[in-house]
Here is the input.
Amino acid sequence: MKEFWAALFFVFMAEMGDKTQLMTLGFSAKYKALTVFIGVCIATLLINLISVGLGEGVGELFPKFWVNLVAGVAFIAFGIWTLRGDHSKEEEKPHFGKHGPLMTVIIAFFLAELGDKTMLTAIAVASRYHNFMAVWVGSTVGLVASNALAIVAGKAVGDRLSAKSVQLGVAVIYIVSGCLAIGDTLLHR
Here is the structure.
């Protein structure tokens, strides 16, 4: 159960303020909320299936000590990445209007998540914890929950909490978690 919660937490935090969460907010202004939610769910199931599969493969190929050490370093790197922010431009986001609302959301969300911080987070968590189903479900729930938040309450949260404070909080959580993972790995060598 620890694997499920770790995946949910880290992926949820990685998505906060991410470009795909903002894209979801934009889609929800253009399309029906249920259509956007279903599209995000389908794309999330697929992208996390790939991510967790890659993470499991990495975890099986390399010794646990090195996987845990690299995962800790990756979390610190994600924290620094979060501090720097996502600097994507609007024109870099794919547009697929000719496919209809549901396919537009699925394709755009899936493509935007490829190589994104949340995908790399799911890979790192899966390589550290060897429980495919728990990590896949946890990372999927975390990504869907953070985007559901964008659909339902994105504007309200944005008015009450600055993007900079959310960004700083998430970065601190990643960096502290990375340091703890490295420390735990070195202590139990």
Observations:
- The longest helix spans residues 33-61.
- Helices lie at 2-15, 19-30, 33-61, 64-84, 101-113, 117-128, 132-160, 163-187.
